[in-house]
TrEMBL record:
Pfam families: Hydrolase. It catalyses: 2-phosphoglycolate + H2O = glycolate + phosphate. One of its GO terms (molecular function) is phosphoglycolate phosphatase activity. Its EC number is 3.1.3.18. The lineage of its organism: Bacteria, Pseudomonadati, Pseudomonadota, Alphaproteobacteria, Rhodobacterales. This is phosphoglycolate phosphatase. Pathway: Organic acid metabolism; glycolate biosynthesis; glycolate from 2-phosphoglycolate: step 1/1. It comes from the Bacteria. It is an enzyme of class 3 (hydrolase). One of its GO terms (cellular component) is cytosol. One of its GO terms (biological process) is DNA repair. Belongs to the HAD-like hydrolase superfamily. CbbY/CbbZ/Gph/YieH family. It comes from Tranquillimonas alkanivorans. Signal peptide: none annotated.
Length: 221
């Protein structure tokens, strides 16, 4: 069965502002104020909570190390979970493109490095969870992307066929995951890395979700 698996943050949904807000809540709690900018630091937000904390601490004239990141990380997750869908929105055309794929008989699922519980909550808040036949998060298995295991599990749970799968993502992690799993890869150019993803030589680039059905059909029929 033909299958399309999506990354979540930076691919389906623009979660940057809410992620940055969670990190800044940690910094405010330590008396430092907001150390991250929701626009300038968006690319770091899509690389995870620890990356945001590391960036913020690096901007202080103080001796902060991995221990401080480890201490704040659970607090960041708590803050993010409580305010997970304040500014987050689906990228334009995502809902319509997914509906078209499903109507055309494709299986669809999600493979993300966001913790599974947070991904479930976010998709429920966006009223989008029922669209997807599978959701594999960073902690669903003992491995995470770019290991191919989570992608293969997402395809399996969606009822798809790995030999006829496209992974839609936004970063080098998704490109490496698709390569390791031996499937096609589309990278969006509206994500954190923009047009620079072309350097990763994916099987196709996606400037808008309006183009997704045609690109998927080109790659897997």
């Amino acid at each position: 069965m033909r299958t399309v698996i999506f990354d979540l943050d930076g691919t389906l949904a623009d979660t940057g502002a809410d992620l940055i807000a969670a990190a800044n809540a940690c910094f405010r709690g330590l008396g430092h104020g907001d150390l991250l900018d929701p626009v300038a630091d968006k690319a770091t937000a899509f690389r995870g909570g620890r990356a945001m904390l590391e960036l913020g601490f690096s901007r202080l004239n103080a001796d902060y190390g991995a221990g401080h990141v480890d201490e704040q990380y659970p607090l960041l997750l708590d803050s993010y979970g409580e305010n997970i869908c304040v500014e987050t929105t689906l990228y334009p055309g995502a809902a319509e493109a997914i509906a078209r794929l499903r109507a055309d008989g494709y299986k669809v699922g999600i493979c993300t490095n966001k913790p599974e519980g947070l991904a479930e909550t976010l998709l429920a808040r966006l009223e989008a969870r029922e669209w997807f036949g599978s959701l594999i998060g960073a902690d669903t298995l003992t491995v995470r992307k770019p290991d191919p295991g989570p992608l293969r599990e997402a395809v399996s749970r969606a009822g798809g066929d790995m030999a006829h799968t496209v992974l839609v993502g936004d970063t080098v992690t998704d490109r490496k995951t698709a390569q390791a799993a031996g499937c096609a890869c589309l990278l969006v150019t509206f994500g954190p890395d923009g047009e620079a993803v072309a350097e990763l030589e994916p099987d196709g680039l996606l400037a808008h979700f309006d183009d997704l059905p045609a690109e998927v059909a080109r790659l897997i029929g």
